[in-house]
Amino acid sequence: MWPTPPGARRVAYRDGVNGVGWRVAMEAALYGPDGFFVRESPGPGGHFRTSVHASPLFAGAVARLLHRVDSALGHPAVFDVVDVGAGRGELLTALLAALSSTDLSTPEPPCGQPPENVASARYVATHPVHGVGVAAGAASSQNDLERAPRVESAPQAEPAPQAEPAPQAEPAPQAEPAPQAEPAPQAEPAPQAEPAPLIERVRLVGVEKAARPDGLNARISWRSTLPDQVTGAILATEWLDNVPLDAAEVDAAGRLRRVLVDAGTGEETAGPAVGADDRVWCARWWPDPRPGERVEIGWTRDAAWSEAVGALRKGVALAVDYGHRKGERPRHGTLTGFRGGRQVAPVPDGSCDVTAHVAMDAVAIAGGWPYTLITQREALRALGVDGARPPLDLAARDPAAYLRALSGAGAAAELTDPDGLGGHWWLLQSVGLGENERGRLRQSGGLGEGAVGLQESARGTMLG
Ligand SMILES: C[S@@+](CC[C@H](N)C(=O)[O-])C[C@H]1O[C@@H](n2cnc3c(N)ncnc32)[C@H](O)[C@@H]1O
Fold this sequence. Notes:
Layout: E1 20-21, H1 22-31, H2 51-54, H3 56-72, E2 79-84, H4 90-100, H5 142-147, H6 198-201, E3 202-207, E4 220-223, E5 230-237, E6 246-250, E7 256-261, E8 268-273, H7 276-285, E9 294-297, H8 299-310, E10 312-321, E11 323-324, E12 336-339, E13 342-344, E14 353-355, E15 358-359, H9 360-367, E16 371-375, H10 376-382, H11 393-397, H12 399-416, E17 425-431, H13 435-443
Parallel strand pairs: 2-3, 2-5, 3-4, 5-10, 11-15
Antiparallel strand pairs: 1-7, 6-7, 6-9, 7-8, 10-17, 12-13, 12-14, 16-17
The structure holds S-adenosylmethionine (SAM).
């Protein structure tokens, strides 16, 4: 038996099968009959706070991004916004409001307080027994984030060597040109019709395993599977962390063994060695775990993201989630539970949310298109949400405006807190955009040089 890291759960490595793998257990607990996410309930927002619930500033920023993508696409007649893992439609509802607002130049002030009983977001905490100070994607990695390259892009293939141009034939002597008639005066080009406002062209779709919530705005359609041929944007906020995955631990002999869990109690035991498919993923994305260390085998998230991005014909796919990158993986896992605003042990009996951080770099590569991976703090700042306090003299000039701005600054500070929601990752993947469209995306909306995330990296890729 190898030493158990302090605070980590000791997995009883008995031989024999006792339980099922976490992937199967999560699937049943979250999405099976009467599963945690699909049964009638207030939905995820009743148990934890995501950025969407924290403040409408988040939807305001996403709306500004949508405007930029719309410009880059040349204002298509229909602009799809597909929210995958849409919860109870909170983001789409807030986007409808934000897109209806005529002024997207500044962040909208918050229009309400987040639910009081749901104090906890799901970001810093790790399982109280699995986690040993592994605040993946958040507190512990903050220094790493600061050291890390700010914009990460998919590697570009070396350009193929160009073939030598064929020698050109000598041009034949040209006949004397016939005298040209005086050109007719050109008609004044017809003024281009202004595109209809985005709010009139947008088609909002929630993709959710849970049923359509009562009272959802009629402009939002609801379905359980991805549409195809999407032109516009695919959004996924805190979806991938709920895509079921298996966990494995390295035993004393160095073998990576699947962790089995008793669905009734959450007790874990060691199962058989992981299969070849799991080993391939681990070798690439989570190499060299040591005895006693845990790996969360993320290929299911890669597959889910790849399918979502595959639904996009043209536009941008955005995943926002807590996670980690190679070299920063948590050593003892991040599987945890949430219920009623509190972090609880991850018992896969349907009584709580079960979630694990996302290997964001693996997901990005699986998306198969150029990408940008930045923190939410960086992304929101690039989209005009920075949490700065309003100037003090505003308090004297216009106390009500000062108070509004102060409350907005507080909400922005929560969304951009590097130890909290601001430490989440934004993975922006552009699909099907040509060089011109990417150029328009760069130029639009004032995201100039130095704006994080929506610029080309030195290697020439960007959000598309
Ligand atoms: C943590 S909640 C996030 C809700 C919302 N996006 C937010 O940020 O507040 C994850 C949601 O994803 C949904 N979900 C998970 N897998 C899904 C799938 N394959 N298709 C559709 N919805 C899915 C769950 O039912 C759940 O409502």
